[in-house]
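Here is a typical sample entry:
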Amino acid sequence: MTLNCNGKILDFKIPKVMGILNLTPDSFHDGGKYQSIKLAIKRCHEMLNQGADIIDIGAVSSRPGPNIISEKEEFDRLIPVLRTLVKEFNSAIFSIDTYRSQIAKASIDEGASIINDITAGKFDSNMLPLVGKHNTIYVAMHMRGDPHKMQKNPIYKDIGSELLSFFSDKIKSCQLNKVHNVIIDPGFGFGKEINQNFEILKNLEIFQELNVPILVGFSRKSMIYKSLKIQPVDALNGTSVLNTVALLKKANILRVHDVKEAKESIELCRKLV
């Protein structure tokens, strides 16, 4: 599988690393660290030097129970930084973590190649038509409910089958809106209890039948630190373990805070091929 990112080709014969750049004050692991343009440039440079294939920039926290900010505040946090980063790193591939179509449009206009939507178009009905119009790569993530309520007793009869059906329908919706470059994300930690997250990982191969790239995001999440009774700051080893399991189960993209370790997981797993 390959995807064209504004003339830059992503070839998934080798799994890719998506480095996380949070511009938020309240993200669960690195909130407030990279809010200035200077610090964002430094962090982006670090991740690209470590081998990040994609930089995923977010200006709104999606942790459980976040404060919802206005579209203007999201724009003001994001666009000046994105504009600078695109100029500074003109060969890099930038993804924007947003569920608002107007933010997506502004980001595409500034040079973003990927829209990463945690609501898979549910929040903003204009998102899919916009992405289709601009022929942009689209990450559709599964989330039960919204960030305020998603962790309140999420119930599934058969979580694997339900997610497979969700993505099958979502891919059809994307195609109807001329969105042909789709990546799916099972949404670990989004409307799932810990045991449900591990059930999805255990059966991750089932999503291969959809014939689209699979993105996974475990990085320092509660399924790791709550299982091990540690803090997010100590969850790097657990993240690497789950990334490795996901790679063995044919994940194509690792979305991470720690790029170097993710690249090492990929290189070691490739020795088994």
